[in-house]
Amino acid sequence: MFEARLNNATTLKKILDAIKDLLNEGTFDCSDSGIQLQAMDNSHVSLVSLTLRSDGFDKFRCDRNLSMGMNLGSMAKILKCANNDDTVTIKAQDNADTVTFMFESQNQEKVSDYEMKLMNLDQEHLGIPETDYSCVVRMPAMEFARICRDLAQFSESVVICCTKEGVKFSASGDVGSANVKLAQTFNVDKEEEAIVIEMQEPVVLTFACRYLNAFTKATPLSNQVQLSMSADVPLVVEYRIAELGHIRYYLAPKIED
Amino acid sequence: MAQRSITSFFKPA
Questions:
Q1: DSSP E strands: which ranges in chain A?
Q2: How far, in Å, CA of A18 to CA of A219, rounded?
Q3: Which strand ranges, in their side-by-side order, compose the sheet holding A166-172?
Q4: Residues with Cβ < 8 Å from A41, sequence gap 6 or more?
Q5: A234 and B1: CB-CB below 8 Å?
Q6: Considering CB atoms only, which of B3, B12, B13 is closest to A252?
Q7: ipTM above 0.90, yes or no
Q8: Which residue from B minimizes the CA distance to A156?
Q9: pLDDT tens-place values along chain A, 257 residues long
């Protein structure tokens, strides 16, 4: 039997909002260490990797490893039925073909359960090579979302240039050209407002805005976002999920024709 | 600019 409980539905609702527009479906691989999901978007340009550790749940039981193929649009609809402060429990029998979501109101007066059919998804797992990235940028998640949204007005592509001075986001097209330069911060009082750049060597990479803007749907999950870059390898956009895990988006770069 | 696919970087495990 599988059972996982969170005392607050907010985080799970935000996780679904962070992936449901990019992925139509995904397999939740459950084991006693937690829940993993890895899936490519339909165009195979980006990859989402979600990790939720079992010790981050208020109750977690996984008698046997279980892979649950979910239609993420349907799962998001079910989670819309939960209040943020509801307790949410995900339950499934071993080798079941359905999964149940139970929502309990804080005052215990209202208990709802939603059953959803599981799907047989034969999604192959991709190996993600360990990489020592040339540049790692930690910055406010809201700032990154704002830059991606603003620059998407100028072009389908954003050029990210990272040097020891700072990180620059550029886009140019018919409207004109835009450059947003962020310098490393040194004396900020709040950690989550800092811009920290660890640079082994400078990089210049080009990415499609539409995927970056899909990734920023995860912004409500974390104050900070981490961008990891190396020449000619996918960008990693990572949002930590406090006390539970993280969501990592990988985006293949664009190259000169 | 040509968009590469993620599968040209990450191979099936």
A1: 2-6, 25-31, 34-40, 46-53, 59-62, 66-71, 87-92, 98-104, 111-117, 135-140, 157-162, 166-172, 177-183, 196-199, 203-208, 224-229, 235-241, 245-251, 254-255
A2: 8
A3: A177-183, A166-172, A157-162, A203-208, A254-255, B2-3
A4: A22, A23, A47, A48, A211, A214
A5: no
A6: B3
A7: yes
A8: B1
A9: 999 999 999 999 999 999 999 999 999 999 999 999 999 999 999 999 999 999 999 999 999 999 999 999 999 999 999 999 999 999 999 888 999 999 999 999 999 999 999 999 988 899 999 999 999 999 999 999 999 999 999 999 999 999 988 999 999 999 999 999 999 998 888 888 999 999 999 999 999 999 999 999 999 999 999 999 999 999 999 999 999 999 999 999 999 87
Six-digit token string for B9: 């970087």
